[in-house]
Amino acid sequence: MKVWERVVEARLRKVVEICEQQYGFMPRKSTTDAIFALRILMEKYRDGQKELHCVFVDLEKAYDRVPREELWYCMRKSGVAEKYVRVVQDMYERSRTVVRCAVGQTEEFNVEVGLHQGSALSPFLFAIVMDQLSEEVRQESPWTMMFADDIVICSESREQVEENLERWRFALERRGMKVSRSKTEYMCVNEREGSGTVRLQGEEVKKVQEFKYLGSTVQSNGECGKEVKKRVQAGWNGWRKVSGVLCDQKISARIKGKVYRTVVRPAMLYGLETVSLRKRQESELEVAELKMLRFSLGVTRLDRIRNEYIRGTAHVGRLGDKVRETRLRWFGHVQRRERPGRLAVINGTMNSAVYQKILKDNVRPSVCDLKLKRTWVLQQDNDPKHTSKSTSEWLKKNKMKTLEWPSQSPDLNPIEMLWHDLKKVVHARKPSNVAELQQFCKDEWAKIPPQRCNRLIASYRKHLIAVVAAKGGPTSY
After folding, report:
1. Above 80 in pLDDT, residue 313?
2. What is the distance in angstroms between the CA of the first residue and the CA of the last residue of the chain?
3. What is the pTM of this model?
4. 315 touches 265 (CB < 8 A)
5. Are 232 and 270 a contacting pair, CB within 8 Å?
6. What are phi and psi for residue 117, nearest 5 degrees?
7. Buried b (16+ CB within 10 A) or exposed e, 293-315
8. 386 CB burial (10 A radius; 0-12, 13-18, 19+)
9. What local confidence, expressed as pLDDT, does residue 84 receive?
10. H and E: helices and strands count for the chain
11. Is 198 in contact with 55 (CB distance < 8 Å)?
12. Mean pLDDT of the chain
């Protein structure tokens, strides 16, 4: 049956397009993406000294509450062919179950609501339902993010997030779902005095300073100390589960190291790709790991055996290096996505202050992460905000060397060609207002094929050679 469900799921995914706000059970998406999006949004608002209001919505028994008629309606509205709707209906026809407990087993009874538990098809069917139910109320990611039935609603004001929460409640509950009043929680980032709280149908939503989102603890003050402690605790819990193997003196250190890397380390590393660890916090993780390894190998501090020898015996590298490795692996996963990425619309005007903030938030951290030496040079064109007095002083203060840029020199960055493509097609559609302009830009940006991006990058070397050979003259590019 599961094989047949997988076949049906694969065919449904070809015709149904789920919104970008849904991260659960979607290809090339994971909990890491949603956690990172939330953390980076909170970080930017803290840096800008602005409030960010987040409501974490929990649905009561979400899978068990989906009305079957609502499921058929959502499938048809999503463009699923009628033959596949009937296939799924056949799976749910005359479904029966029993309840087994300590005193015995009940008689069989019909189940006429909800999705099948343990079904390979149920997660995608639920995603279809949530996609249709939230069509009129969801905002762009990261202002609205969903991971199956875990929903995050963000806004710049408490009144707005309260209004959005009520709209979500109405949209879900009128179609058979139920928002949990006890588990839905509210958190305010960079809170000022008198921010108040959020109410749902007159009932006050629980206000928290931290929330466990998709297994990763996020704190309103931006710290990650509690998340590090949770990772240490999760590591010890995993270690205790397999301590019978790890503490068995008859098992070789190599096998113990393999069991440790398979069971314990993933629990300690979960979600750390999205966290900026301080040296003290990284040290806290490594100290806990070394304790586990010493217990596993039957070694104490009194034996005066160096940590490097312990790691080498168990074939376990430094945890800090592994964190950086997983971070790079996830970055590569993001870079390999098929689309050129979501187009972000920035409200306001780009000026020298905004440009300097971009340099501070992006260029400087990249230089540190890549461990570039003092010989690195920043390349920028002669845009007025790049050459302004305040920007020049900022660059000098931060000891950033810039490459001399002759006037009227061509900008050969591949992104410039994508901007050209975008301007051309949007101009042809003739938007009549700003809202249409933004929507047209997003629509056309999403249509850019990955092959176009790959060709631009592959031809970059030819562009440079042609410009040098022309000695200031025009080129075919």
Report:
1. yes
2. 56
3. 0.73
4. no
5. no
6. -75, 135
7. bbebbebeeeeeeeeeebbebbe
8. middle
9. 94
10. 22, 13
11. yes
12. 87
pLDDT value at position 369? 61
What is the tens place of the pLDDT at every residue in 18-51? Answer: 988 899 989 888 899 999 989 988 888 887 788 8
CA torsion, ordered 209, 212, 214, 215, to nearest 10 deg:
140
Best CA proximity match to 167, nearest among 126, 142, 133: 133
Residue 283 has pLDDT above 90, yes or no: yes
Give me the residues paired with residue 105 across strands: 100
Q: Dump pLDDT digits (tens) for 322-380.
A: 998 888 888 777 766 655 555 556 566 778 888 888 788 767 766 766 666 677 888 78
Q: Is the Cβ–Cβ distance between 296 and 247 less than 8 Å? A: yes
> What are the DSSP calls for 390-440, one per residue?
HHHHHHHHTT--B----TT-----HHHHHHHHHHHHHHHH---SHHHHHHH
| Nearest by Cα to 215 from 138, 131, 147 | 147
Q: What residue type is 225 in one-letter code? A: G
Q: Hunting for tokens 């538990």 — which residue is that?
A: 117
Q: Is 162 exposed, middle or buried (0-12, 13-18, 19+ CB in 10 A)?
A: buried
C-beta of residue 138 within 8 angstroms of C-beta of residue 144 = yes
Closest CA to 9 of 151, 135, 126: 126
3-state secondary structure of 145: strand
The first and second tokens of residue 221, run together, are: 């003050």
List all residues 6 or more positions away from 379 whose beta carbon is below 8 Å from its beta carbon. Answer: 402, 403, 405
Residue length of the chain: 477
